[in-house]
Design goal:
Elements lengths: L4 E3 L6 E3 L29 H34 L3 H6 L5 H23 L3 H7 L3 H29 L5 H12 L1 H29 L4 H15 L8 H25 L1 H23 L1
Antiparallel strand pairs: 1-2
Helix pairs in contact: 1-3, 1-7, 3-6, 3-7, 5-9, 5-10, 6-7, 7-8, 7-10, 8-9, 9-10
Bound molecules: zinc ion.
The site of zinc ion has 8 residues, from loops.
């Protein structure tokens, strides 16, 4: 399940048996236990898949912590408060929170690009598949429709309260809508697709159990959007199903249309929800 290399019949390079194509010459891998059945899944070696997941999940919060500490030390001297005060009352500085998020996502994205550089030919090849753009658009509409439906049900249950993840975002959008569109509408979804679809979903698929990959990826995707330290846990719980549903639908989009499709669907969904917040501000 973890590592077994095969030799490319065309260029004689060795690569992981689960990979969809030879990363060197792009010859199709005809003996992959996964991608011969699900040809749109983008499989890499286990280290890379696990590494991408750990980076986008735990690494992201670790990078965020570092950025906050550095920001606190630099910015607080100017503002005349101690860095401990700044960190304890971080939510009172939404503009700083926005820039901390920008730096965190850009650093994470940059490290992901470095990890994926050896597979650059595979990614460039993906961009040529026109059907994956159409599939992404169609699934994007389905994702938005699902979110509207679940959102309608949850808004009745929660009496219009948004969860903490959402309200923090709304304050940041108020400060700089354009930066929010780029970071939370574009970079964020790309980072999450690399983390949860290429990383986690891909890694779990090595077990050969597609259902297991769905269940665990859906759950983890739901739980990362859940604030365990929220003052309103009931409200967080009410919002949980919509994130799990989105996670499952994105896995399905990825399985059917590939990485380009799930990324387009995810970007469409986020850009729409940020645009709706921007519209209510003006
Ligand atoms: Zn080859």
């Amino acid at each position: 399940m973890f590592t077994k290399n095969i030799k490319c019949t065309k260029c004689d390079r060795y690569y992981d048996i689960h990979e969809s194509v030879c990363p060197n010459c792009l010859a199709e891998n005809e003996v992959s236990p996964i991608t011969t059945k699900h040809k749109n899944l983008l499989m890499f070696d286990s280290m890379r898949q696990m590494g991408l997941f750990i980076l986008g999940w735990l690494g992201l919060s670790l990078i965020s912590t570092f950025v906050i500490l550095i920001w606190a030390n630099i910015a607080c001297k100017k503002m005349g408060i101690t860095s401990n005060d700044f960190i304890a009352n971080l939510n009172s500085y939404p503009e700083a929170v926005l820039w901390i998020n920008v730096l965190t996502y850009l650093i994470t994205f940059f490290i992901m690009v470095v990890i994926l550089i050896p597979k650059r030919k595979v990614f460039l090849n993906l961009l040529k598949n026109k059907n994956s753009y159409i599939a992404g658009f169609v699934f994007g509409i389905a994702l938005i429709a699902t979110n509207i439906l679940i959102g309608y049900i949850t808004s009745m249950l929660s009496k219009g309260n948004v969860n903490d993840n959402q309200s923090a975002l709304e304050i940041m959008i108020g400060y700089n809508p354009v930066i929010c569109l780029i970071i939370f509408g574009l970079i964020g979804p790309i980072v999450e697709e690399i983390t949860y679809r290429i990383g986690l979903f891909g890694f779990l698929n090595r077990s050969g159990k597609l259902w297991l990959a769905y269940v665990l990826t859906g759950l983890v995707f739901g739980l990362i959007h859940f604030n365990f330290s929220s003052d309103n846990i009931v409200n967080e719980l009410i919002n949980l199903p919509s994130y799990i549903a989105a996670g499952l639908l994105l896995c399905f989009t990825y399985q059917k249309g590939g990485f380009i499709s799930s990324t387009i669907a995810h970007v469409m969904n986020n850009v729409l929800s940020i645009s709706m917040v921007i519209a209510t501000l003006n």
